[in-house]
Amino acid sequence: MAYSSRKIAEDIEKFLMVRYEDWEGKEQFSGTADRLVRMVDELCWPTERINEECKKYFQSTFKDSYDEMLVEGPITAWTLCPHHLLPCKFTVFIGYTPNGHVIGLSKFSRLAVVMAKRPIMQETYSRELADLINIQLKPSGVGVYVIGSHGCMHARGILQQETDVSTSVLLGGFKNEASTRKEFFDIVGRRATQ
Ligand SMILES: [Zn+2]
């Protein structure tokens, strides 16, 4: 079934207008439907568009013999939580040990931002990000560490302002070698608290 984001946005605007019918400030909702549609387009890309965009980032990799760990971050990515559709801010660290091929540094940042452009749980996001890098670059190891600041925990429900959620996905050497694992978390720990 096809849903029209325009129709849903208009319904939401109408809902606000009706709920606050007696309030003179209700004029603030005029145009909200248009802004909602633009917001949904910005934050909720179709899966196909996300996949195509991400594929592009791996089209130009460079042969290089650098085989030590590289860690990029903090990268900021915004998503909506799939359960409440409230904003969720991800602070992302990506590490990998190249195995003959490296990728342009801006690509990891773009990848982290674009992969969050659909309502997605932090656990799924972390896993998908690590898996994609692993499949596309075939490095010796990958580490993804994400700190999530969830609007649905801060602004409603449990109301925990200071609580963040961290997730990590480690693959290859990052998972199997204790020294690599430690090196990654040492770097991330230093940068995350700066
Ligand atoms: Zn939520």
Helix-strand category: alpha+beta
Question: Spatial order of the strands in the main sheet?
Answer: 2-3-5-6
Instruction: Please give the largest β-sheet.
Output: 4 strands, antiparallel
- The low-confidence parts are none
Tally of alpha and pi helices: 8
CATH architecture of the largest domain: 2-Layer Sandwich
End-to-end distance, in Å? 48 Å
Instruction: List how many beta strands DSSP finds.
Output: 6
Mean pLDDT: 94
Strand content: 15-25%
Our Rg estimate from Cα atoms comes to: 20 Å
**Unique bound compounds:** zinc ion
Shape: elongated
> What is the element string, with H for helices and E for strands?
HHHEEEEHHEHEHH
Total domain count: 2
CATH names the topology of the largest domain as GTP Cyclohydrolase I, domain 2
**CATH homologous superfamily of the largest domain?**
GTP cyclohydrolase I, C-terminal domain/NADPH-dependent 7-cyano-7-deazaguanine reductase, N-terminal domain
The CATH class of the largest domain is identified as Alpha Beta
State the helical fraction.
40-55%
